[in-house]
Design a protein that fits this description.
With 214 residues, the chain is α/β, with parallel strands linked by helices. The chain contains nine helices and eight strands. The strands form two sheets. Strands 2-3-1-4-8 form a five-stranded parallel sheet, with helices on both faces. It has a three-stranded antiparallel sheet with strand order 6-5-7. The longest helix is centred in the C-terminal third of the chain and has 15 residues. It is globular and about 45 Å long. The chain starts with a strand and ends with a helix. The protein binds BIS(adenosine)-5'-pentaphosphate (AP5). The site of BIS(adenosine)-5'-pentaphosphate has 33 residues, from helix 1, helix 2, helix 3, helix 6 and strand 6.
Length: 214
């Protein structure tokens, strides 16, 4: 299975990806996670990306495209992958088309997670994540059993630097301006499926299962 998850910040791309991974052993390629890992490791890429991320802006296309091209050639992507947070601009989508053609890969679907902006603001201001294992929590919808401690691994659970309300609103405006045009882009390629992202955390998995069943 080779799919793309497109959606506003906080639409639930990471959450839906977790449900899909539990059923299908495919690689989860999240450009946000790769960038955050680089920030944490203090690499040159991470140092450059951090300023964009903290301001709610997109990291330049050429940096992201090179990063994804190399990631898609890693062995775990051979059996399938889901792209989470990429592509995010028309140049990224065009570069991905070329990359896939070169690698002889055909996409199965592009799933758009449709959600209202105010739902996103509420979800992201209350989102928390484990610094150690990456498990996603929410103080309202999915709290940890013990405050600040990961249920899964006991790691420290914190708020992301870009989950402050003013940065969330900037990320949303960037989404509407630069990423939303991809909905039409993939509609024209007859790849788009839309899911109501205010519903269950396994809405995309359920859609994929329905499509598989015929
Ligand atoms: P990235 O990490 O990709 O952030 P994002 O797209 O803003 O998405 P999020 O991770 O914030 O949200 P999500 O949709 O995964 O939601 P989640 O499942 O966590 O990117 C960060 C930054 O990196 C960008 O701003 C940019 O600077 C840079 N970057 C990354 N990719 C780039 C690219 N391609 N080009 C350029 N720059 C790039 O859920 C959110 C919360 O809601 C959680 O608390 C969760 O528990 C809750 N929740 C989720 N689903 C539900 C539900 N159905 N019901 C109730 N609660 C729910």
């Amino acid at each position: 299975m080779r799919i793309i998850l497109v959606g506003a910040p906080g639409a639930g791309k990471g959450t839906q990806a977790e449900a899909i991974k539990a059923k299908y052993p495919i690689a989860h390629v999240s450009t946000g996670d790769i960038l955050r890992a680089n920030v944490k490791a203090g690499t040159e890429l991470g140092k450059n990306a951090k300023n964009y991320m903290d301001a709610g802006k997109l990291v330049p296309d050429e940096v992201i495209i090179a990063m994804v091209e190399s990631r898609l050639q890693e062995p775990d992507c051979k059996e399938g992958f889901m792209l989470d947070g990429f592509p995010r601009t028309t140049p990224q989508a065009e570069a991905l088309d070329k990359m896939l053609e070169k690698l002889g890969i055909v996409l199965d679907a592009v799933v758009y997670l449709d959600v209202d902006d105010e739902v996103v603001v509420k979800r992201l201001t209350t989102r928390r994540g484990c610094k150690a294992c990456g498990e996603i929590y929410n103080t309202v919808f999915k709290p940890t059993k013990k405050e600040g401690v990961c249920d899964k691994c006991g790691g420290e659970v914190v708020q992301r630097d870009d989950d402050k309300e003013e940065v969330i609103r900037k990320r949303l405006s960037v989404f509407h301006e630069q990423t939303a045009p991809l909905i039409d882009y993939y509609k024209k390629q007859a790849l788009l499926a839309t899911v109501d992202a205010s519903g269950g955390k396994d809405a995309v998995l359920r859609l994929l299962e329905q499509r598989k069943a015929g």
